[in-house]
Every structure is written in C-alpha cells, then in structure tokens.
Specification:
Helix content is about 45%, strand content about 15%. It is an alpha+beta fold and about 850 residues long. The protein has 5 domains: about 1-55, no CATH class; about 55-130 and about 165-325 and about 390-460, Vanillyl-alcohol Oxidase, Chain A, domain 3; about 330-375, no CATH class; about 475-545 and about 670-845, P-loop containing nucleotide triphosphate hydrolases (Rossmann fold); about 560-665, Helicase, Ruva Protein, domain 3 (Orthogonal Bundle). The strands form 2 sheets. Strands 1, 2, 3, 4, 5, 6, 7, 8, 9, 10, 11, 12 and 13 form a 13-stranded antiparallel sheet that branches. An 11-stranded mixed sheet has the order 15-14-24-23-22-16-21-20-17-19-18. Strand 14 and strand 15 form a beta hairpin. The protein starts with a helix and ends with a helix.
C-alpha cells in the first residue's frame, strides 16, 4: 500500500534514484511547515511584547495593595501574609529525629484548609558585608589595641565573605486566604499564625511575621538580586514607604481609608525595578540583570529530603518558590476512586486484548499494575492515614549579569535536576506571569501542578543546619560553622543561664579557646575578667593586656587577704553571712573535716567572726580590715577547748611556713583583668588558694553588679576544684546563683568522664547553656552522647576531632565548629599554648 502511494507521487521506491526525489519532497514539506510555525511564533511574540510594553512596571506587580501590618491584597477576595523563619539543625539529627521533623512539617501542612494556600520561598542573594559592619568589626578601646582589633576584624570578615561562597539564603512562607474583606482575612491569619507558631517552635525554628514595610523590602530585594542593596536604594526605602498611601494602619475600615495624592500604585513605585522588559520568549531583563523563570517538573516517584537545597546550592542569585494548594479531602477521595475505576477498566481491556491475541490473560501491562498499586496506596493513605492531596507548583528564577551567564546557570541547574529525576521546563511567552508566580506574594500565576500527598510534600524541606550568628553589639567570635563556613558570633549574656564549660582532651585547644574569648571580651565589652590559672598558662597574655597577675605561693610576695569583705551586698549582715559561710569551708580544709564541721566548731567560728569584724563595720577602712591574725587572737581569747584546738590548727597559717594568707591584700584587685597564678601552691595551700579565689570572685561580682558590669570567671583545670568537697560545693553554688549577680563562669577540664559521672557535678552541666566540646576520647564521647542527647552525626564532630574543632552547644542548639587562626597573626602568637610555638616565640624575642 505504501509503495503504491509512492508510485502515484511519481517515483519508484525500488529505484535508488528516487531517494533524491523523496528527500526533496520531504524537505519542501517540512520547510513549509517550519516557515509557517516560525511565522506564528514571531507574530505571537510581537503581540506579547506589544501587550507587555503597554503595561507599566507597576501594573506587572502581582498585588493590589499592601497594608502596614503586612497583610497584602493579592486580588479581590484574596489576601496573603508572609513570615520568615530560621534554619534548624536537620542535617545533624538522628534518623528518628528527622522522621519527627517530617511529621511536624507535614502536620502543619495538614492544618491548612481548602481555601488556604502557602508558598515556600527560598531567596538566595549576594552577602552584603556592609550591613554586618558593626557585628564583624572590632573597635580598639585604645591606640595600643588598634593593630590587634584590625587584624581580628579582617579574619572575621574574610570568613564571613567566604562562607556559602558569598551568598545568603533566606527562607519565607507566604500564606494566602480567601476572604470577603481585609478584616475577615486578619481574623483568619490570627488563627493560622498560632498554628504556625506552635509548629515552628516544635521544629526549633524561630519565626517572624513581616509587617508591610518588611514585605516591601523583601519584594525590593527580589527585584535587585544581583545588586548591592545599599546602591539600589534600600537604605532610603523605609522613609519612602512611610509616605505612600498603601501602608495604612491595620485596624477596621482599611479599604475605606481615603487615598493620598501619591496614588494607588505609590507603594509599587517604590519597590519596582527601573526596567522590566521581555525581549525574548523565555527570559527578561530586570534593570540590567538577565533573568528567567522556569518550572521544575517533578518526574521522580520519590524525592529526597535535600531536594530543595540541591536546587539552590549553586553559587548564583536565585529565587525558588513552591506553591502548595491543599485539595478538598472528600473530593480527593472521590477522584482517586474514579482513577482506580479507570485503571480497572484499562486492566480488563488489556486482558481482553491478550485473550484475543492468544496470550495469558494474567499478563497485564507493567504500567497498569504500577498505577493500580499507587492509586490504591494513595486511597488507603487518604482513608486510613493522616494524608491529604496537594497540588504543587515549583518555580525557580535564575539570573545572570548577561544572557550568556544566564544560559550557563540554567544549564548548570538542568544538570543538577537530571540525577534527581526532574527536569527544568522553560516557560516561553509566560515570563511575566512566571515572575508574578515566583515572587513571595501568594499568587500562583503558572499552572504546572504536580499532585502529591502529604508525605510527598513534607519531604520538600527547607532545612539544613542552624547558624549561630547574632547581630548584637557584644556578640563574640567563636570560630566558623564546620558545615557552612559561616562565622559563629554569640553573646552569652543573651542566654538565660550564660554559665559554660569547655571540655576536651589535652592538646585539643581548650586554653586557646578560653584565651580567644578573653581577648574578645576585652576588645568588645566592658566586662571584667578573672582567671583561676593552676598551670601558669595565662600570665603572659594578662601582662600584655596590662592586667594584674597574682602569684600565690608559700614564698610569694603577692597577697590576698581571705578575710577581705565587700560591702556591695544588700546589707552588712548579708556580706557577713557570705563571709562566714566561706570561713566554714576554709576551716573544713584546715581541720580536715571531710564530713563538715562539728556543731561546737561552727558556733565558735561564727562568734569569733562577728567579733573581729566589729571595728570594720564601725569604721570601714583598709586599716580596720581584719586578717587571720585577728581571728587567731579572737580564738585564743575563748575559754572553750574547741576554740584552742581550732587556734592550734590555724597557727601554721598565721605564724608558720604557710602564712601566705595572713596578710592584707597588696595587689591591684580593682584591675579589669586579674589572673590568679596558683601553679606553685601545693597540698592544703592549693585548696585554700582555690577557695579564696572563689570567695574573691563573689565579692568582685557583687561590686561590679553595683556598677552595671558583668564579671567573667575563667577556671582552667576545673577538675582540680571539683576533686575537693569544699571547692566543688562552692563551684556548684556559683553555677546556680552567679547569673543573678551578673557573673559568667566558664570551667575548662580534660576529665570529661569524671565530670559527667558525678551526680553532684551534673548540676554544673545542667546549669550551663554554653558547652564547648573539643576532641573527646571514645569513652567520653559515649557518655556525652547520653548526657547531652547527641546524635551520632553530632558526636562525630568531637571524636577524633582536629585541634580547634568540635561541637558548640548554645542554648540547646548544637553546631559543629572550626576555630583556626593564621599562625602568622598577632592573635595566634598571643593565644597559642603549644610548646613548639612558644619555643619559637622565645627565640624570636
């Protein structure tokens, strides 16, 4: 039949010569068809361009009015509101925790009714270091610190710019409701916001609902993705938006508020780009930036939980928007049942066809079986499980400095989507609608829906890892996020309990971390710093910073009077009671009372203490401040034999070889930076020295609180304090009560196992919201995992970790960190405790 038709056209197919005739015939046919198609495309393009050129830029923006409280009227009867939310530590969670997050995210989506839709927006834009200048810059308090402050600032800014390849990823969720009026929409948003607050609290991701000005700034940023926000006028945006008519107050009668002369599109004018052209079918020009919006066609049967983050990973400005539209459950069940009926009908038809062809009727098309299984599984989920159906549209706007860079970025994204079982659909002649759909206003202007159930939508997670970066004046630098390279900037005073511990094996970087924090504090705050230094590691740093080093030993000429008393407590009686409690512990060590003092001893000490302080309370002065000599003499005047026994035990500390504590204070304890070097104290003297330091710190904290100054207390080799009952009890008391007095204690120890297995000392950990974990042994790691509820992924950052690397837990949020400084920097030379570095430094000096 085919050959007969060919003969009618004038050639014999069996003749080789007729191949040329056949080729010319088809060539003429296809050229005519292509010419016609090209003509239609050009005509449509001209028509489309004419229509778009007739519209102003403002009219291309997909909303009618923006109100001051953040509610936006998309169109008549439809309103939207946008919130921004933080990232959460999803990457470092255990499998069970990840499953719980998926359920929470899916549970939130299930709370949306049929008239409510949401748009998830991931906005990636260049990092603007100028907006972080105050946070990233350390200013010297005097000329001597200028070079150090500049070097420190340079290191931090370098890490900031290097993180995420110079880009910042922001997360937004826009909820759109149908309502007859703005007031009705506001009431619905109140209910939705409560549900969102609950869900995001469970996700450990703080949310913030944007007001009108903040939403306008967000839209402004969307139109200036590649430009410096300062240069594009965003600094003046706040002032301009206050003048426009669209941002009225958010209470009743909004739609009836008289408009100002600025006009209905005044707020659009402020944020709209200077130029918006559509010169090509599948791209546009926004100002001088080439841009294109494409749809992501989801062909994969299943998606992974990092699907969205894979799309936005390339180092280029872009916007990814996912429109999620819940379907009526009753209608969805009915639709699925109809689909199953159609599939069954197809299966019967397939069996009939197989019977006529003589094949086994049990053999059915693989596709039919697959669709049948999927449809029945979906129906079971809708009827028996907490599943719903959603229509999902995914749009992505990519940019380039020119058309070629835009093409390269599109090709890169196509390559990333292919292994994920998805493809990029170019939206020719739909770019204006696509732009409206990708903006975070809640308008789905492009219909490329994919039907997904709750579990399928919940897998589209926008979470990766949390950043610990606070834009606070006294935020201090603690290294960089090991996953993203982002600087960790924290203010411990923002915590409810700023007390902390630094745990790690010898050589892991504990002292370096403590010294780095001390320098941070001195450069950036007005806080006082006191150091308990059992190994003489901090003396050189303290002297270079013009602090006071107090060397306590049996042969020392630096003295601290343990009977010094501060009148900065509430009353004199409070001050005396604090000092008496200290003396009880002091004499427990002297008398060797492991089980505490006897009742008679407590009474005698209390009686004598009140006597020796009477002259000072009558006339407070350095000359009237009592010493152990005065207390010793008061004991001798008692007739009780127990008093004589106490005096006998005290004599060696007054007139004997251990009289280092029987002197008036002769060092500058008023200095902002004080270090107690107790390296050469041994035996009981070391215990008494550590206890005396703790008492001094309490008094310093009380004095500084009176002047509104916080006091940082750094305790190196913390396990030495925790070995003795008296100093351990005192430490627990510090961790429980210090915060109320403006104190911020930090304990450094290498014996994590002993520290964590002691029930009493666990009080210290329970009262620490700042935990800095460096390299841990395998045994210690197992204990930490249990006590701190760490996942295997989190634990991997502290077992066999490099020097200066580990896991930082701040207020319950755990982030892996790296704290590595250039070895040729001034700061590194000040902070290092490595023997080889110190030896080279000594040779240079």
């Amino acid at each position: 039949m085919r050959q007969e038709n060919m003969r009618k056209r004038g050639y014999d197919p069996r003749n080789m010569r007729n191949r040329e005739i056949r080729y010319n015939h088809y060539k003429e046919h296809y050229e005519e068809r292509n010419l016609k198609k090209t003509s239609e495309i050009e005509e449509k393009t001209r028509s489309d361009q004419k229509t778009q050129s007739d519209l102003s830029v403002e009219e291309s923006l997909p909303f009618e009015r923006m109100f001051k409280d953040g509610i936006l009227r998309v169109e008549k009867g439809k309103y939207s509101k946008t919130l921004t939310f933080e990232d959460t530590n999803y990457t470092l969670m255990s499998d069970d925790q990840k499953t719980a997050i998926l359920k929470l995210w899916g549970g939130f989506l299930n709370t949306l009714d049929d008239d409510t839709t949401c748009e998830l927006t991931l906005l990636k834009h260049p990092t603007d270091p100028s907006s972080m200048k105050k946070v990233l810059t350390y200013e010297a308090k005097d000329d001597e610190d200028q070079e150090l402050a500049e070097e420190y600032s340079k290191i931090i800014r370098k890490n900031y710019l290097r993180s995420n390849q110079g880009f910042t990823l922001e997360r937004y969720l826009t909820v759109t409701v149908k309502a007859e009026s703005r007031e009705a929409a506001a009431r619905r948003f109140e209910i939705i916001e409560e549900s969102m607050q609950y869900s995001f609290d469970k996700l450990d991701a703080k949310i913030k609902v944007l007001n009108g000005q903040e939403r306008m700034k967000l839209l402004h940023k969307c139109f200036h993705l590649r430009s410096n926000p300062c240069k594009s006028g965003i600094d003046g945006l706040h002032r301009e938006m206050e003048k426009v008519a669209g941002l009225e107050e958010g209470i009743g009668g909004l739609d009836r508020v008289p408009r100002l002369k600025t006009g209905e599109n005044a707020n659009k004018t402020v944020i709209s780009p200077e130029r918006l052209d559509f010169p090509k079918p599948s791209s546009m020009l926004i100002n001088d930036t080439a841009a294109s919006v494409s749809a992501v066609d989801i062909d994969a049967a299943e998606l992974t939980d990092d699907f969205l983050l894979n799309i936005v990973e390339p180092a280029a400005p872009m916007i990814l928007s996912v429109h999620i539209k819940p379907q009526n459950k009753v209608k969805a069940v009915k639709s699925v049942k109809q689909s199953i009926t159609e599939i069954e009908r197809s299966k019967i038809d397939s069996q009939k066809h197989a019977f006529r062809q003589g094949f086994d009727t049990d053999i059915v098309s693989v596709n039919i079986d697959h669709y049948d299984h999927q449809a029945k599984e979906l129906l079971d989920g809708l009827l028996n499980k907490d599943e719903r159906l959603y229509l999902v549209t995914m749009l992505v706007m990519q940019t380039g400095k020119d058309e070629q860079e835009l093409k390269d970025n599109i090709k890169l994204l196509e390559g990333r989507l292919q292994p994920l079982g998805c493809r990029l659909m170019r939206l020719s002649f739909q770019q204006e609608n696509a732009l409206q759909g990708v903006l975070p206003v809640g308008k789905d202007a492009i219909c490329t829906d994919r039907q997904l159930k709750t579990s399928g939508v919940a897998i589209l997670l926008p979470f990766n890892t949390k950043e610990l970066f606070q834009k606070r004046r006294e935020a201090l630098y603690y290294g960089t996020n090991a996953l993203t390279g982002y600087p960790i900037m924290l203010d411990r005073k923002a915590l409810k309990t700023p007390s902390g511990v630094i745990l790690g094996t010898p050589g892991g970087g504990k002292s370096f971390a403590a010294k780095r924090e001390i320098l941070n504090v001195l450069l950036r705050t007005d806080d006082a710093v006191i150091i308990a230094d059992p190994e003489a590691e901090y003396s050189s740093l303290v002297r270079r910073r013009h602090g006071q080093v107090i060397e306590l030993s049996a042969m020392s000429r630096d003295y601290i009077n343990p009977l010094d008393i501060s009148m900065d407590y509430t009353t004199a009686s409070d001050a005396l009671q604090m000092k008496i409690n200290f003396l009880f512990s002091f004499f427990e060590i002297i008398l060797g009372r492991k089980d505490g003092l006897r009742y008679s001893e407590v009474t005698i000490i209390d009686r004598c203490m009140r006597k020796v302080y009477e002259p000072y309370f009558f006339y407070p002065d350095e000359e009237t401040m009592p010493t152990l000599e005065n207390f010793y003499q008061a004991l001798l005047r008692q007739e009780d034999p127990a008093a004589k026994e106490i005096a006998m035990a005290l004599e060696i500390y007054v007139h004997g070889s251990m009289s280092v504590f029987n002197h008036k204070t002769n060092v500058d304890i008023k200095n902002r930076l004080v270090s107690f070097d107790i390296c050469r104290l041994d035996g009981k003297l070391k215990k008494l020295g550590m206890l005396t330091i703790q008492d001094h710190v309490w008094q310093k904290v009380a004095e500084n609180r009176k002047h509104g100054i916080n006091t940082r207390f750094i305790i190196d080799e913390f396990h030495l304090l925790l070995k003795e009952k008296q100093t351990a009890d005192f430490s627990v008391e510090i961790w429980k009560r210090f915060r109320k007095w403006g104190g911020i204690p930090t304990g450094l120890t290498q014996n994590s196992k002993d520290f964590l297995e002691n029930p009493q000392l666990m009080n210290i950990l329970d009262n620490s919201e700042f935990i800095y974990l460096l390299n841990q042994s395998e045994d210690d790691g197992k204990i930490l995992k249990e006590k701190l509820h760490l996942s295997d992924e989190q634990l991997s950052f502290v077992t066999n970790a490099d020097i200066g690397s580990g896991l930082l837990i701040y207020g319950g949020t755990a982030v892996p960190f790296k704290d590595q400084f250039p070895k040729d920097s001034l700061m590194y030379r000040d902070l290092t405790t490595k023997f080889s570095d110190l030896h080279r430094k000594k040779q240079r000096d």
